[in-house]
Amino acid sequence: xxxxxxxxxxxxxxxxxxxxxxxxxxxxxxxxxxxxxxxxxxxxxxxxxxxxxxxxxxxxxxxxxxxxxxxxxxxxxxxxxxxxxxxxxxxxxxxxxxxxxxxxxxxxxxxxxxxxxxxxxxxxxxxxxxxxxxxxxxxxxxxxxxxxxxxxxxxxxxxxxxxxxxxxxxxxxxxxxxxxxxxxxxxxxxxxxx
Length: 194
Description:
Layout: H1 14-31, H2 38-45, H3 49-55, H4 59-75, H5 83-98, H6 101-109, H7 122-143, H8 153-170, H9 177-191
C-alpha cells in the first residue's frame, strides 16, 4: 500500500507539511493535475516555493503526496476472507471517500487535460498504486480458489471501480450503499469461479 510519506522529505516540519498540503489540495482541485503549478501555489497561498522544492523535490511529488495523503483510508485492501466480502468492502470504502467533498474534487482533478505543468505520468503513478491495492483482493481470491481462470486483473479492477468512479465524476448525488453492493455483486458474479 502506498504511503504519502514516500513523496516528501521526512525532515519537513509538520506545520509546513500541513500548510503546503492544504494549499496543494486547493490548487489541485481548482486546476487539475496538468495545470498544477508550484509557482502559482506559492504565490496564491503565501508559501515559499523553495520550501516545496526542498521537502518535495518537485510539483509531481507534491501532487502525489496530496493524492495519497487524502486517500490513505481507501488505499488499504480489505481482507474479509472472501472475494464477495472484499469487493463489497472496497466498493463501500471507495464510495465513502467519494461522498466527501475532498474525495469528489480529487477524483475530478485526475481527469485528463491537455495543459501540462506536472509530468504526464503523475496520474498513471496514482492509478497504478490504486490498481495494486485492488489487485491484492484478486490475488488473495485466486489463492483461496475463488477466482475463475483467465481473469485479466485490470478488467477485474475496472468492473468494480468504474461504475462507482463514473457516478462520482458525473453526478453530485451520494453514492449509496445499495448501489455499491449491487456493483460488488455484479463484479463478484463476473470474477468468481463456478
